[in-house]
Give the backbone structure.
Amino acid sequence: MTDHSQQSVASPPVDVVICTHQRPELLKVALAAALDQDYAGLITVHVVFDRSEPDPALRRDDELRKVRVLTNTRTPGLAGARNSGVEAGHAPLVAFCDDDDAWEPTKLRLQVEEVQATGASTCATGIRIRYEDRESVRLATAEEMTLASLVRRRVMPAHPSSILVTREAIQGPIGLVDEHIPGSYAEDYDWILRAALAGPICVVEKPLVNVMWGQSLFSGRWKTIIEALDYLVDKFPQFGQDRHALARIRGQQAFGYAALGQRGPALRTAWRTVRLNPAERRAYVAVPVALGLVKAQTVMSALHRRGHGI
């Protein structure tokens, strides 16, 4: 006979939050992967429909695998939807998965084991990026998941679909997802920076999340992206203390202006970027786009094929 009390200690319940917006086929894949974990404990998936009609047929109430269907009751957008999902649950552990990603079957089990072994409140894994017929693996170490490293470069495995966090931390020192970020862009980056401020982040150095690159709902929303990046720079003084980190942000904004066809702001921001860090390649990528020599989408497609973003 199974000792349920011992099992609950070794494999505590996990709340999984999947936010979705009119992508039913992708959602089915993400949901199936979350339910198909080899984890012995209870998994409750909270599917949060943001500005879209919920699908009650997704509900499930098995003993160890449950699905709850709800709507975003907070600020419209990804940040509010994530927080609606967090607040709907009660499990001591919380995990996120985007509706266009899918977990490997061992993901939760290995993360829970790592959290229990290290005592860390937050845990990330590696990711496998898939774009068209190509794929690439991105791994990170715990040393790369420090605040200084995350400010200097946006460590790609620090992806929302790879994150597991204790409820005590996300409803305590780290806090919920920031709903004030313009358009919810980079809300995950903002959150992981706060997680690093709150304490060490442990890592399972295996590609346990399959990320479908290029499916982002932010594709082409450059005005919102530029505003959100300004918001992050204003919020975190660490960017102003690291010229290379600030140059990365300004380089992204220069490309954003170029993609919008705003030649003047693009060239001026590219020049600011070079002054901060002459080696920041984003500035040099933005210039030909601003001058109309190459299309922004051509650049983005080339980067996605290599498993990168701007």
Q: What stands out?
A: The two ends are 54 Å apart (CA to CA). The longest helix spans residues 243-259. The chain is about 45% helix and 20% strand.
